[in-house]
Design a protein that fits this description.
The chain has one domain. Helices cover about 75% and strands about 0% of the residues. It has helices at about 1-20, 30-35, 40-65, 70-95, 105-140, 140-155, 170-190, 195-215, 225-240. The radius of gyration is 18 Å and the shape is globular.
């Protein structure tokens, strides 16, 4: 039910944007965009209410707002820029197109940071507050994360045909692989952060700001390397740790 509702609302809003040639970042198109972004959160609420009623909704929000350990909050924020800086260093070494966060006007960076508040509040309570615990409980940390990563990436598909979005004019497959890599690292961080969805929000916001300010479509495929390596390390670590201690218990 969760995925059906999230996709139905988001894709309807995004297709309406496309059909009416509206900008997602100017009114009235922004209303459609916000409706799409908050669809996973809304889908989680409906699904939670159906499963357990009002009492379960209260428990859901207590899990969402679970305090993230300070160390893991810092790690969640710092991992994306470190990986993107490694990617930029590799791009420079191979003379590939690259950009820098530090070359962006402060106003642009501030707007991105503010915009990420809506993105993470709209998405993460659904993807990692509702869906991930259920997928981990059924499929385990690696397969459950991969399933969520594919669903999360495919949810963005309409954005690739909407002018003005960061995805417009780029390739879907590298984007999907990158989001799957993000998902793997995020799950590992959440496991160590006692299942805190706030940790996922911090990671997501940090990764988006880095991606939007340092993204170069011409180097899209090559730039996957550092993220694939990070995801591989995260998957290995989760596999090793899950064989020694049930880390998923904090999320499930």
């Amino acid at each position: 039910m969760f995925f059906l509702i999230a996709y139905a609302i988001s894709w309807t809003a995004w297709i309406a944007l496309f059909a009416q040639h509206l900008s997602p970042f100017a009114w009235p198109g922004r209303w459609f965009y916000l409706a799409a972004v908050f669809a996973p959160h809304g889908a989680a609420l409906v699904s939670t209410a159906v499963e357990g009623g009002r009492a379960e909704l209260g428990a859901f929000y207590r899990r969402i707002m679970h305090r993230v350990p300070f160390r893991w909050a810092i790690i969640a924020i710092c991992v994306p820029p470190i990986i993107y800086l490694v990617r930029d260093a590799v791009s420079v070494g191979f003379h590939l197109p690259h950009d820098s966060f530090f070359h962006r006007p402060p106003r642009t960076v501030a707007a991105l940071l503010l915009g990420q508040l809506a993105v993470v509040l709209g998405e993460e309570p659904g993807w990692r507050g509702f869906a991930l615990p259920r997928l981990l409980g059924r499929f385990g940390p690696i397969m459950g994360t991969l399933i969520l990563g594919v669903a999360w990436a495919c949810w963005h598909l309409p954005l690739f045909i909407i002018t003005g979005t960061p995805q417009y004019g780029t390739w879907f497959l590298p984007f999907a692989l990158e989001l799957m890599a993000w998902s793997m690292v995020m799950t590992l961080i959440m496991m160590h952060a006692r299942g805190s969805v706030v940790a996922a929000m911090l990671f997501h916001a940090s990764a988006n700001v880095c991606a939007f300010t340092m993204w170069q479509p011409d180097a899209q495929v090559f730039a996957l390397g550092p993220w694939i390596i990070a995801a591989g390390i995260a998957a290995w670590r989760m596999q090793w740790e899950s064989s020694h201690a049930p880390l998923t218990a904090g999320i499930c």
